[in-house]
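Workshop exercise sheet. Pairs work together: one partner reads the sequence aloud, the other fills in the structure field after running the prediction. Swap roles for the next sheet.
Pair: D.N. / O.F.
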Amino acid sequence: MGFFSSKQHFPVEGRTVLLTGGSSGMGRALAKKLAEQGANVCIVARNQQKLDETIDYIKSHAKFPNQRFLAISADCTSATENTRILDETTTWNNSTPPDIIWANAGSSSPGLFIDTPLETHRAQMDMNYWSSFYLAHASLKLWLSPSSPQDKKEKEEAKRAEPRHFIITSSVVAFVGLAGYTPYAPAKAALKSLADSLRMELNLYSGSRQSSTHPSPTSEVKIHLVCPATILSPGYDAENETKHAVTKMLEEDDPKQTSEQVAEAALKGLRRGDYVITTQWLAHAMRVCALGGSPRNGWGIVDVLFGWVMGVAWLFIAPVLEGKVWRWGRDHGCASA
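Structure field:
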């Protein structure tokens, strides 16, 4: 898989994709690209008007005339709503669970830690961690439900079936903490830990599928974590309204991507079979610095070598960033701005 493999690890043509946060920004761009590649797509968001507009938009980019599209208005921060989303999608999909589920819902409300109301900290955790957690819990319970032992032919057919994929959108702030992102970054870091733990735990179910005597899931399940950086989108415009000036200063030279560029880079990483996917060079550097016990992509050689280089570079980069924040405080004070 990954760096040395030419196999397409993420075929979507004819498959059904459930995508939360699908009505704007990165989610809208993903829905369009999945439609272009022949997928049946269900998008989820709160605003019905935006959902309807996005459905019309992605229908116009469908690869085939018989592709199907569905919009569900729901609050992804509710556990019961995530169960409803899956129930409605499964019913719509001819009583078959979706093949690919992408937990993409999220929003950023940056600000200094002590200046941000506790209600906002809580809401950020609900939107950026619990929404993905609830969807993962409901999806994996559905996918991993064991079936009775099959005969040899059925077992072999199941082994050849394409795996299902659960994808979580996190952020590069899961790798490196920045001043002014304390309401947002902890939830995104928690998603990385959740993905790492789930990825290892799923080996239990994959191993059981090799048994001819024990009940086991009918399909293999893959976990992926997508960590974009700055995305030029309505969400980015909204977060800049509350973002502290010191945070804007730290980010001013960072490369920025459009929603389309991020969506294409994420899908390219999935086709390679990558586990942790970043979408531009700075994010790649941040990823290899912070992998810890996370699995490396491909055979791991590139990640290890790049990680050594960036480990040395970070000896110089980190003091520069912290020095910028210190000098900002000296020159401008610590008032919220």
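Discussion prompt: The mean pLDDT is 91. What would you look at next?
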